[in-house]
Amino acid sequence: MVSSLFLQLLYNYCIDINIYSEDSTGNTKSNWDMKKRFLSVFLALVMILSLAVPAFASTVPSVAGGKLSGIELRVYEEMKEVVQKVAAGKQTSTETTLSLERGEMEWSVQELGLSSVDDEDLEDALNEKVNAVLDKVYTCLELDLPFEMFWANNSWVWYWYQQHTDSTVWLTSLAVSFEASPDYRGSSKTTVDPAKIAQANLVKETADSIVRANAGKSDYEKLVAYRDEICALNTYNDDAYNALLKDSSVYGDPWQLIHVFDNDPSTNVLCEGYAKAFKYLCDLSDFNGDVACYIVEGSEGSDRHMWNVVRMEDGKFYLADITYSDNRSIGKDSVFMAHASGSGQKYVVSAGSRQYTYIYRDDQEGLFTDGFLPISSTPYTPGANPPAPVPEFTDTPDWCKAEAQWAAQKGITNGYGGETTFAPGVECTHEQILTFLWRAAGKPAAESEAPVTVASYYQDAVNWAYEKGFIGEGFDPAAPCTRSQAVSYIWQALDKPEAGQAASFTDVPDGAAYAKAVDWAVEKGITKGDGGEDTFAPDKVCSRGHIACFLYRAYNS
Fold first, then answer.
1. Domains and CATH numbers, the chain
2. Which residues pair with 171 in a beta bridge?
3. Disulfide check for 186: which of 157, 193, 433, 478 has CB 3.0–4.6 Å away?
4. Which of 245-254, 309-318, 374-383 has the lowest mean pLDDT?
5. What is the mean pLDDT of the chain?
6. Is the pLDDT confidence value at 181 over 90?
7. Which residues have CB under 8 Å from 158's CB, separation 6+?
């Protein structure tokens, strides 16, 4: 937490001098370096959340970004791809350039608050509009990609070209770069060092191991374990806090969740690191019930603070302050999964003789719910609404036992031939794997019907697959699904991620429709060669056991 006085001093909204020029076509170019917007030095920003529980660890939905539209959504999608590639070590530059159609970023002189296009404040007005878009996009990316944004420094650079009439101005292109933190910076502020990125990614194993170690526990027990693990791995960074009060330049990066999991006792965090780490572990988890974790920024008393809000299977929201759980005077259980009095923007938690007042920041309203995230007025009762147990299969061999059980626990598939039999050797049909993928996606409703009629048990899934473009009119739902078809379906369901390199199989032609899917599946460890190191066996039929393994690896890699 940081004092109000310091925050006033810290509020630095620094912009470099605007430099612009005119190209040969008469387009005006603006080059701005946007630095330290809301330099929330010890708290990067707002909330990181999941409005709906991610079905699986690798498919956290774009909850905040999903609320965007128009040019905001387009910039978000472009930068999301950049952020993910940078975090994965697939590219070093943080820049993307968008060619804009007229109307995407277009304003009248009145909307810009000007008298004419010749107004000397035109550049300032346009950059104010651009900044508003980028600020919102950056915030949503932080909310949706808590781990992938570890390298970003809360700053950005942009430049654009514009054209105009006498009454209207529009941008024809926009280039955006995110500034990298000094800890991960490459040759410039908007490039990263691959070696440093790779080193940071090693913390994933620590986080994954925590999740794996607690996989068999109830949802509430998992949350308690995550709190305790974070507190055991980390110590509140009093030195950073005290130094921050004196000189913001020595703050460093104690906001990073990376520092919680790096097994380095010299790298500790403040409240943001605690809250992000807790959210990250929740994102990696397969909860039995409808559990979602949010990160909230605001204040506790008069100090800026960041904490978590957790929605449990009972549909209610509870406050979880991991910072105060770590050897703080309040006690670890007093503000963990706590209920509170109040409503709207302000809530009060009573702990013994003391009360703790949590106030959401103004911009939290309407971000994820109709108003502010509500806190339950009644205590949480662990195990009050336990999910129905999933019977264990009796016919699954070791090679697919855990995978089949996982699929059943996630509601992806049921037993076959009985509650306790999975039938791992039975061939998997197209309509069956599409139904598995549809359930994994959260059973989305299609707006139209496929020109293929199947059993009612599969129809919704087939409609969805047709609408998504996975299948066409010649689709044979009852045909056995081959290896190439299976990885192609899974690849498409996960939005066609790119592979870093091509797989070298003699029986997968470069121009095959499924080649990119095979490349990705092999790179991710979802499958490998069959029949030899250089053969994939694309036409080999998959069994239910094979499909369960593919799905497990795809959604947990």
1. 4-35+68-188 (no CATH), 203-364 (3.10.620), 398-556 (no CATH)
2. 162
3. 193
4. 245-254
5. 82
6. no
7. 32, 34, 130, 134, 174, 175, 176, 177
